[in-house]
Amino acid sequence: MNDLDAGQSGGAAAAGVIYLVATPLGNLEDITLRALRILGEVSLVACEDTRRTGRLLKHFQISKPLVSCHDHNEARRATELAERAAAGESIALVSDAGTPLIADPGFRVVRAAIERGVRVVPVPGPSAAVAALSVSGLPSHDFAFKGFLPSKSAKRRAAIRSLERSDSSTVFYEAPHRILAAVADTRELLGDSRRIAIARELTKLHEEVLRGPVASVLEALSARPSQKGEFVLVIGPADDRAASGSRSTTAAPPAAPAA
Ligand code: SAM
Asked: Quick one: 175 and 233 in the same domain?
């Protein structure tokens, strides 16, 4: 047994525990061995979309009762799940992709569990924010994660303007139909030379990272007929002393097939 097997990290899924299980962003090879074990051992899996998680579990030959827990029913489900765990069930909470609670449901469940003295255990794995930051080429020792940029222009612009003097990198999620507007706002509000990175379709077939001064990234994006896929926008600090050159680069696609 190694260090990782000691304490709550090892052994069979414990009774009366809620596990927060990260799942792949796209490439199914990113599921962890521990996630598979826990998903196979719990008595119930709570998920955003039962069909989607059902497909994931089926792929790994896991058969479990599923219950939905999404933005529209989480308040009610939180109490129910926490009480079931308090009564001795072991429950896994997953989201559609990545780490639960990170711009995804689950916070209320965790709160309700903690209030009832239920143990909450992380089963870490992929998250688009961390994956994007890691390949962004922007300073990563100090960063802020701000979830989704506001969908309305005025609020989005205010969020971007607030980074005028930012001394760390900032990570946002953004929808494909707004990414161009978000990058255009970044250029207008923070200046042509502000360094950014856009990570698209991470771990999937069309994975790509655009990096460089916002003016050149905007030019590259604007040249496309449409913006497709899932995007993370990373805006570098106002004063990026580590930066050199101004080339926009594209990452090679991953070797493994996307799910
Ligand atoms: N909980 C998830 C996580 O840990 O990354 C994020 C869920 S949030 C509802 C979904 C957003 O994450 C997408 O709109 C996109 O901005 C980002 N995202 C998810 N998967 C991605 C991927 N494969 N590549 C790039 N961005 C992704």
From this structure: yes
Give the Cα separation of 186 and 156 in Å (integer): 10
11 and 103 share a domain?
Answer: yes
Determine the structural domain holding residue 196 and report its residue range: 128-251
Per-residue pLDDT, 2: 42
Q: Tell me: do 114 and 156 sit in the same domain.
A: no
Which atom of ligand 1 is the closest one to the Cα of 22?
4
83 and 162 together in one domain: no
Concatenate the DSSP letters of all residues of 183-212 into one string.
HHHHHHHH-TT-EEEEEESTTSTT-EEEEE
CATH value at residue 94:
3.40.1010.10
Which segment of 6-10, 132-136, 171-175 scores lowest on mean pLDDT?
6-10
Percent of the chain with pLDDT over 90: 86
Last residue of a domain, one of 67, 100, 123: 123
| Lookup result for tokens 């990782």 | 4
Q: pLDDT for 15-41, tens place per residue? A: 799 999 999 999 999 999 999 999 999
State how far the Cα of 168 lies from the Cα of 237, in Å rounded to an integer. Answer: 5
Report the nearest-CA residue for atom 2 of ligand 1.
98
In the chain, how many domains are there?
A: 2
Q: Which residues pair with 23 in a beta bridge?
A: 98
pLDDT tens profile 109-168: 999 999 999 999 999 999 999 999 999 999 999 999 999 999 999 999 999 999 999 999
Predicted confidence at residue 255, as pLDDT, reads 38
- For the domain that residue 141 is a member of, what is the CATH number? 3.30.950.10
- What residue ranges line ligand 1, CB within 6 angstroms? 25-26, 95, 97-99, 102-104, 127-129, 173-174, 199-204, 230-232
Distance of alpha carbon 224 from alpha carbon 237, whole angstroms:
27
